[in-house]
Amino acid sequence: MRRLAFGLLLALGLALAQTDKLKACFIYVGPIGDIGWTHAHDQARKKAEAALPWLETKYVESVPEAQVVPVIDRLVGEGCRVIFATSFGYMDGVLEAARKHPDVIFGHASGFKRAPNVMTYMADFYQVYYLNGLMAGALTKTGKVGYVGAFPIPEVKRHINAFALGVRAVNPKASVYVKWINAWFDPAKAREATEALMSQGADVFAFTEDTPTVVQTAARKGKYSFSHYSPMLKFAPDHVVSGQLVHWEAIYIDFLKKVKEGVYTSKNLQDVDYFWLLKEGAVELGADYGVPINPKHVSLLKAARMKVGGKEVPVYDRVMALLKDMSSQAPTFDPFTGPLKDRKGVVRIPAGRKASLQELLTMEWAAPGVVGDWPGEPK
Amino acid sequence: MEEVFLRAVYFGTPLLLATLGALLGERAGVVNLGVEGMMALSALAAFAVAQGSGNLLLASLAAAAVGAGLGLFHALVTVTLRANAFVAGLALAMAGVGAAGLLGKRYEGLPLFLTAREEVFALASVALSVLLYLLLYKTRPGLYLRSVGENPKAVDLFGGSVAGLRYLALGLGGGLIGLAGADLSLAYRPSWADGLTAGLGWVAVALVIFVGWHPLRAVLGAWFFGLLFFLQFRLQGSVPIPPEAFAAMPYALVILVLALSGRGRAPKALGVPYERER
């Protein structure tokens, strides 16, 4: 009996080896049908599979963060050679599993801990948020821009700061009012936070939450908004100006190709971190794919002016110029270029240099013009 | 000030409808913990019909029908098959949310261009509260319905149908819970996503107790919860109270009221399956 089982396993193993396919498996924290984070990763998984004929994929959705290790064990047992874990909260579980399975390659999205067989990756929006901030600054009439934030963590703070820097570059007197909802997905909280911001006078909105609630709520009262993560133009065609869109497949395809070619192995990932931006095509400025700015608002943005190096230029031109620059192979502009002070007047990035990756990933300070609670704000 | 009141009312409206629905079943003696799942499925039904037909009235009716159907199903399980109402309700809540997520996949991310007005739902919910009050306290069927929750044996002796009344209460109550779902996916946030109900059904279950099983007090209770919910965001950043304190307040209040009132005002036969003595 045992011999028979062994023989069967051997045959199975040989059959698997012969297919010569690379099996990559994805672990998602949410349902693939949300309109945000998990959906975007799953779209990217499908695109990677379509682009790489030798790739085979599998996914497990709605995995609670505490249960990532048993799920990884199962996936390894099913022959996954590369495993992508797509939630910040999986971080320690991934490292534990990586020690258990030293021959398996792991990718952890949005984390900062690596190992010989664990790389980290992130498609980051901060440059795109700056561009959206420029537009928001041009469109606000009350000088109050609203921001509905998910959790007060460095990633979200970095995005709000970049956004606020953009708003202030156009309108130095404007403020960004922030409300935290302490959830990635909660339409009811997003709705009431938006209503609260409107009742305080905010007339342009951006947000971090995985539904189009803020967009819909703002549009009801005729207010402008910027969509987040997925194209949300269709939810408010007259009021969504632009937004930020993600292309995780850029990272997945590049990484998997290098694994296939043997560039990346389970021994050399200690220093591999994909922090990809506009330049690498991991993110896009847009209200919808291929629509960087809603055509209905282009004339408004052309009429609005801002000062750049002492010269008056239309906001629209500035956005397009910076988008082109930051999308090029050698960008000259970065939103977090010193000298930059926080809202308390402390210098955070000295003159003459850009924020380092470390400074970006651990950003806790609030930019000038940001109004509201800011948990973890440095003294 | 006026808009603070409006937010309290608009956020309170789906809560009120769901509370009324759960309250009606409990008045007849059947605990209903399935509200969350019933709301999720009826919200999906409303969105699917609205998306397909563009008719909001039809969509609301579909939601009410789905809610009523689930209410009758709960009656079948608890009244006829005499399952434990707590366990059956929990199962209904979880299965409903799960099924809505599964069935709703193709509706996620779709916009709804024709959206219902929140005012209509708000006004209807208040009218329904008054109607329910009149039904329960001013009519003979209402008297029977309340009696079935207090003393089913007496109703049985007087020739009333215990099972029939409980089916009626859970069916009508389910319809009201269905309208709560319709409010969510047609008016409060016109779109569909898995997890749309976000625990509101559970708040309604707590609210039933908080308002002492009374339909008119339910209006104030739901609006009060709405007010607290809105204030946690409105006051954030303007007062030194941490927003978590406001977020926790509704639940803290429920616990306080429960501790003070005991089970004094609950229908006496609540949660006890009726079995005729032979």
TrEMBL record, chain A:
<dbReference type="Pfam" id="PF02608">
    <property type="entry name" value="Bmp"/>
</dbReference>
<dbReference type="InterPro" id="IPR052910">
    <property type="entry name" value="ABC-Purine-Binding"/>
</dbReference>
<feature type="signal peptide">
    <location>
        <begin position="1"/>
        <end position="17"/>
    </location>
</feature>
<keyword id="KW-0732">Signal</keyword>
<dbReference type="InterPro" id="IPR003760">
    <property type="entry name" value="PnrA-like"/>
</dbReference>
<feature type="domain" description="ABC transporter substrate-binding protein PnrA-like">
    <location>
        <begin position="22"/>
        <end position="286"/>
    </location>
</feature>
<protein>
    <submittedName>
        <fullName>ABC transporter substrate-binding protein</fullName>
    </submittedName>
</protein>
<dbReference type="GO" id="GO:0005886">
    <property type="term" value="C:plasma membrane"/>
</dbReference>
Automatic annotation (TrEMBL), chain B:
<keyword id="KW-1003">Cell membrane</keyword>
<feature type="transmembrane region" description="Helical">
    <location>
        <begin position="31"/>
        <end position="50"/>
    </location>
</feature>
<protein>
    <submittedName>
        <fullName>ABC transporter permease</fullName>
    </submittedName>
</protein>
<dbReference type="GO" id="GO:0005886">
    <property type="term" value="C:plasma membrane"/>
</dbReference>
<feature type="transmembrane region" description="Helical">
    <location>
        <begin position="6"/>
        <end position="24"/>
    </location>
</feature>
<keyword id="KW-0812">Transmembrane</keyword>
<dbReference type="Pfam" id="PF02653">
    <property type="entry name" value="BPD_transp_2"/>
</dbReference>
<feature type="transmembrane region" description="Helical">
    <location>
        <begin position="192"/>
        <end position="211"/>
    </location>
</feature>
<dbReference type="InterPro" id="IPR001851">
    <property type="entry name" value="ABC_transp_permease"/>
</dbReference>
<feature type="transmembrane region" description="Helical">
    <location>
        <begin position="56"/>
        <end position="77"/>
    </location>
</feature>
<feature type="transmembrane region" description="Helical">
    <location>
        <begin position="241"/>
        <end position="260"/>
    </location>
</feature>
<feature type="transmembrane region" description="Helical">
    <location>
        <begin position="120"/>
        <end position="137"/>
    </location>
</feature>
<feature type="transmembrane region" description="Helical">
    <location>
        <begin position="218"/>
        <end position="235"/>
    </location>
</feature>
<keyword id="KW-0472">Membrane</keyword>
<keyword id="KW-1133">Transmembrane helix</keyword>
<dbReference type="GO" id="GO:0022857">
    <property type="term" value="F:transmembrane transporter activity"/>
</dbReference>
<feature type="transmembrane region" description="Helical">
    <location>
        <begin position="84"/>
        <end position="104"/>
    </location>
</feature>
<feature type="transmembrane region" description="Helical">
    <location>
        <begin position="157"/>
        <end position="180"/>
    </location>
</feature>
